[in-house]
Amino acid sequence: MTLLETERVAVSALRRGALPRRRGPGLAGYLFVAGYAVLLLAFGVFPTGYSFYLALTNDQGRFTGLNQFVKVAQDYRFVPAFTHMLVYLVMWLVVLVVLVVLVAVVLRSRVRPGTSALFRFLYYIPGALAGVASVLVWLFMLDPDVSPVSWLLNSMGMHSFAAVLAPGNLPLILMLIAFWTGAGGWMVVMYGALNNIPDEVLEAARMDGAGPWRTAWHIQIPMIRQWIVYMTIMAFATGTQLFVEPQLLQTASLGRVSPTWSPNQLAYVYAFQQGDFNGSAAISVFLLALGLIAAGLLVARSNLFTLDEK
Amino acid sequence: MTQLPLSPPATAAGRRFRPSRAVSFLIVGLLLAVLLVFFVLPVVWLLLAPSKTAGQVVHDNPLSFGSFAQIGTAWGHLFGFQDGAMATWLRNSAVYSGGSLVLTLAVSVPAGYALALTRFRGRKTLLTITLVTMIMPQATLVLPVFLELNRFHLIGTVWSVILPFSFYPFGVYLVYIYFGSSLPRDLLAAARIDGCTEWQLFSRIALPLAKPVVGLVAFFSFVGNWNNFFLPYLVLPNSDQFPVQVGLNQLLTSTPSFNPVAGAGLDITIPELSLAILVAILPVLVLFLFSQRTLVSGMLAGATKE
């Protein structure tokens, strides 16, 4: 609030100056964005630059070129961590895209509006348990001792919690958790996108003899394509940043799951257990690059985020 | 919401019955039902677990209800844990999320307004950086921010959480879209000719119109920060500073079910842990119950601006 008041004083002082009508908005613009710009510099631009700086130097601050990157890439934990991430990402993105689009189409055109609203609401609610809560809930769901679906776990040959948390199962478990908390929200969003398609278009398709599935495949899905791309890129970027989930599963598995399962965990171990901030920054830069590429792709190639003037 | 022309009852009544229609109806029903169980069953289990003793959770039907008295017992155990640590964590979460919410709004509403409706050098650059940082997942910058805070010796202070939380490019973008589409530039130009100062334009014309988008930004900011784990986990070393999400992690490591060594003899068992999850997410859950529409309008903001 104090920020805004100083702006008022400054701006009105400005307005009383000579010829302010033309230049006024420009200078006022600076004052309006000042607070945000400071935060952007401090917590967006600076940390990005700082991690690049750390990644290119050693602990004495001497420039070491790409040595840090080579060092972490040769770490025996580096390739497994990125492989885990990749396996998880492939599973997660395929399941997410297929099911979210399918369910959104079904809820939009095969179900009565009232029923559809109820389903969307119920699918969406687990999103409130994002983060730590979702992992804890799934620890219970996956523990054959207490799980309501222990019969299912048993029928798959998993009779103990330890068997469920076998390292090979982790991508699947993380996928379940991510789908449980995230998919409902995306279904709601995708349904909203489908809702933006004018009824006349669907009506025309029906007149031409297209059934609901053909309408979905040839008209609805192509028309929401940009939203599917958007969701995929966002989910990809988020998926590269896995930390909480494998960290908690590691705790709960009593150390059977590797503490450096995901790249972010490896960066964490570098910083906190090895005290190697430069190495940690090098791993962060790899992850930053993935996030930047995803963001750049979305901004440059999709027309969702236009900076054009109207 | 008009009745959809493609909904099954309408078509089924209008045409003769075909087996392929029945099959597709069956597939639709099965898909929705399986997903319904998947999404809802864990929530139902979670709501029931605190009413049972640790023994009942294991031996009774997973979806049975214990007793209300047992909820009270679990509550007592939970809030008695480490001399009321749970209450401290909840209070911390409120301070962190609330503080950064106020700061986020105070900073991002004027910024979004200026990006949409004023012209200044560097505006396009600022907008581009905002877009890029907005799309990058929150966790991307956590370790770099930690390294930075560590460099400036801010680790362990309240600000090490509140300030990074307050940097919320998505909020700025939402405000930018909102003003860009709902406030005609001509209106501002007219008011300017009538002698309004830039500040008056913002406070008298733009701000009163901004209520819906302020709600939207507040929702996303609060939910995101309340559930955030990674940053506070790194920058807050002491238990009495933890927000409740990090506290839950501490509870997990104190539960005999998941950590037989460290947790032996403690009162925190599965019912207590379930109750802790429910208490920890309650504010977000309440917001979620009323927010579905908010979510759609927020996420579709880019598309609806045309």
How many β-strand runs of chain B?
Answer: 0
Count of domains of chain A = 2
CATH architecture of the largest domain in chain B: Orthogonal Bundle
Give the largest interface pair and sizes: A-B, 125 and 115 residues
Say which CATH homologous superfamily of the largest domain in chain B is assigned.
MetI-like
Largest sheet of chain A: none
Task: Write a structural description.
- The complex is a heterodimer of chains A (310) and B (306).
- Chain A has 310 residues and is mainly α.
- Chain A has 2 domains: 2-55, no CATH class; 74-301, Orthogonal Bundle (MetI-like fold).
- Helix content of chain A is 74%, strand content 0%.
- Chain A is built from 15 helices and no strands.
- Chain A has helices at residues 2-16, 20-55, 67-74, 78-109, 113-124, 132-141, 150-155, 161-164, 170-195, 199-207, 212-223, 225-239, 244-252, 263-272, 277-301.
- Chain B has 306 residues and is mainly alpha-helical.
- Chain B has 2 domains: 8-70, no CATH class; 82-253, Orthogonal Bundle (MetI-like fold), CATH 1.10.3720.10.
- Chain B contains 17 helices and no strands.
- In chain B, helix 5 packs across helix 9 (169-182), helix 6 (123-135) crosses helix 9 and helix 12 crosses helix 16 (292-299).
- The longest helix of chain B has 33 residues, at 85-117.
- The two termini of chain B are 21 Å apart.
- The chains are: A mainly alpha (310), B mainly alpha (306).
- Chains A and B meet through helix 1, helix 2, helix 4, helix 5 and helix 6 of A and helix 2, helix 5, helix 6, helix 7 and helix 8 of B.
